[in-house]
Each structure stands twice: as C-alpha cells, then as structure tokens.
Amino acid sequence: MAEEAAPHVLLICYPGQGHINPMIRLAKRIASKGLLVTCSSSSIVRDKLAAASGVSAGGDGVLVGRGRIRFDFLDDHFDGTELDLHNFLRHLETAGRLALAGLLGRQAEAGRPVACIVGNPFLPWATDVAAEAGIPSAVLWVQSCAVFSIYYHFVHGLAEFPREDDPDARFALPGLPALSVADVPSFLLASHPYKVLGDTIQDQFRNMGKASWVFVNSFAELERDVIAALPGVRPRPPQLIPVGPLVELGGHDDDGGVAVRGDLIRAADDCVGWLDAQAPRSVVYASVGSIVMLPAEAVAEMAHGLASSGRPFLWVVRPDTRALLPEGFLDAAAGRGMVVPWSPQDRVLAHAAVACFLTHCGWNSTLETIAAGVPVVAFPQWGDQCTDAKFLVDVLKMGVHLRAPLRREAVREAVEAVTTGPEAGAMLANARSWSAAARAAVAPGGSSDRHVQAFVDEVSRRARGGRAKHLRLVNGRTIP
C-alpha cells in the first residue's frame, strides 16, 4: 500500500518583511511536525524570497524535520508598476482572490490538495476564498495580543478612546495597563497618513469569524493578563492561540537544520565577524526596521548620538536612507562603528557583544530582543510600535523610552540609562528572565509548541476524515 500523503497547509501573507518573517517561521514549525507546508505571497516578492529562502518557487521544497516546506506564489499579474498603498492593497484583493483560487486548483491537480489556509491581517479576503472553496482557514495575527484587544474594542465600539488633542487622558481595557493616545496603534488615529492600513486590519476583524483558528505571534506567559481577559469581552472575540515567539532563537535554525530565511534585503556578511572583535556587552545595535523612514534631521541626530555614546555601534541604515547620513560621518565613524544596509538581526541580538538595542519596536524586533534577552531603547514611530514600546518599557521593564523629536543628547542619555545607569542591572535581569520564558514556550512541550502540535493533530484528523469520506463515496459508486 502506498504511503499516505501528509496533509497540506498553505500559508499566505502580505508581501512585507514584517509579515514574511513570522509566516516562514510558523511554516517551519508546522512542517517540522510532519506536514507539507506551502508559503505564498504576491508575485512581487517571488524572486527575492526564493533567493533569500534558498527554495525555488513551485518545486517540491526541502525537508524540515519530519515534513517539507515549499514556495508557490500568486499569479496576480503584478507588473512592477509603482502604486500607492491604497491602490496596491486594492490590486492585491482584486487579483489575489482569483489568483488564490487558481493556486488551490493547481495544488489539487498536482496531487497535494490544501487541507487548511492560513492568512494574515492585510489579506482579509483570504478567509473568504477559503470559505468559498470549502477549506478550513486560520489567521496568523502578526502583532501582539494587546494590540489585538485594542483593535477589537475599537471595531466593536466597546471603549471610548481618548482624543488626539488630549495626551494626558488615560483609558483602560481588560487585562491591559492604563493607556494614553500615544500608546494606541496610530493606524486608528484620524491624523495618520496610512489610515488605509487600519481600515484593512479592521476588515479582517469583521470576517475573522470564518476562521477556525486565530493564531497570534506571542506566547502565553508574555501576555497572560490580556489573554485571560479577552474571553470576558462581549461580543466575545475569537480565542487567541499563541504560537510564538516566531523568531530564530539564537541565530540558529532549530527545525531540522534547514536555514530557510525570508530577508528581502541582503544582510551584510561581516556583521557577526565585526561583533566577534568587540568586548562583551559593549555594542549599541540600532535599527528602525524595513519600512520606517526617518527624516534627515532625525538620521543626523541619531548618527551624532551614537557616535557620542562612547561605545562601538552597529547601525542598520537601509540603502534608501544612506544619503541622509551627515557628510563625512562614515569616515569619522570608521573604527568605532559599523553601518550596514541590513543585518542578520537574530544573530546580532544573540551575540555576546551586544549591550542594547535601539529599536523602532516593530513586533518582530520586539520579540527578537525579548528572546535574546537584550535591553532596549524604545523609539517607536507609528502603528503597533507605539503599543509595543509601552509594554517593553512600562510592563516588561526592560528598557527606556526615546522620545521624538530626536536629539543627540537624548540618544546618548538613553544608551547610558540601559547600559550603565542605576536601573540598568534590573533591566538586564528582566530581559534575561523574559528570554528564558520565550525559549521555554517554543521548546518541546512548551506552551506555544503544544498549540502548534494541537493544530497539526487537528488538521491531520480532519484530512483523514475527508479522505475516509471520499473513499466511501467512491466505493459506494464502484462496488456493487
């Protein structure tokens, strides 16, 4: 008798770095437990992602643990035309619905029908396509449980949010500390220029009931209070299933030795070698992620602040920002600092030379620094970064705020506060404690690992039931 094919799960995400990273990491964890997993996104990232992952698109993929991971992309006819965010999201939905349906058809024809589709918040229509195809679906929420709760209360009108012109006002939600308007995801503010992103996320909340599972890139121990409080909210939100932190722990792949990555920007090869030459806990690592664009004045102030800290620094300055560096800065900083277009951040944060992380507080970066146990200088810009910074500093107590407008003196003082200040020792101890909790959550038998295993078991059970039903129908027609 031929060996029964493994159930097939399709993960599809928005073509942004902050969405691709957790998608690939969840895919690897699911695959490692024996399933076939396909990662998908818009054709706009096909070539970059295939090159970064080392997995050719459309092929059989590679072994990861007891399963396989492969890539296949939407035939969404994106021609590379520059579109504003609103029109790009509209194009993704218009072309993506048909393209996803076509992708599902191709998988079935190839003998690997999809047993479950996992989408994410910027593709709310993916659950509609799954429902129309009669395929169970899940949503991977790529932000925190706290941010989920804030959006949920906003969408359903369950709380009165403070006005933008009242920075001193505070409001409370179940399981969360008192929040101000500065702590709210800025996509919900009327003044935010990317309100379309907030609208798209809200659309996801309105059809999330179609999903059988709602995963969240967090872990139960990190957000215990908000997870415990959500079931008491009315109307009752879907149950959140923590499966994180979806990060590479310690810079090493732990899913069968396959280093499948999703960096859309090539990381500098010499980062780790440079860190090897630095003293333990001496380096300031700074990065504002893949999207944030700082104004020229802020870039200059950060440059001077890092240089005046008296510490070696590793600073990620993307190619689209490099021209904003002060004239002569690179030459002046040579020998004391390293400026790179992108870094292997998980490996950098895990390095013994890194003392602190000046971060924009994107959720992926937040989880990476938590997992690594590195204190932070929190410099949020917009979106959920504002909420993440609040939790890093005031709840987890593993860093300090760096407020806008940015000033070089403030950069230097913040670095000193988290490295040698009176509270630096406590911040480091807290960071290391959270690191231990994060690693325990994803270790075999940990809280997040159990949730992933339960999902794999349920998909496998449903797939077996579907095959058994199909065989009965076939036998009923062919056997007299």
Automatic annotation (TrEMBL):
Q: Does the keyword Transferase apply?
A: yes
What GO molecular function annotations does the UniProt record carry, in alphabetical order?
quercetin 3-O-glucosyltransferase activity; quercetin 7-O-glucosyltransferase activity
Family matches, as InterPro entries: UDP_glucos_trans, UDP_glycos_trans_CS
Entry keyword set: Glycosyltransferase, Transferase
Q: Its Enzyme Commission number?
A: 2.4.1.-
Under PROSITE patterns, the record lists:
UDPGT
What class does this enzyme belong to in the EC scheme?
A: transferase
Which family does the UniProt entry place this protein in?
A: Belongs to the UDP-glycosyltransferase family.
For this entry, the protein name equals Glycosyltransferase
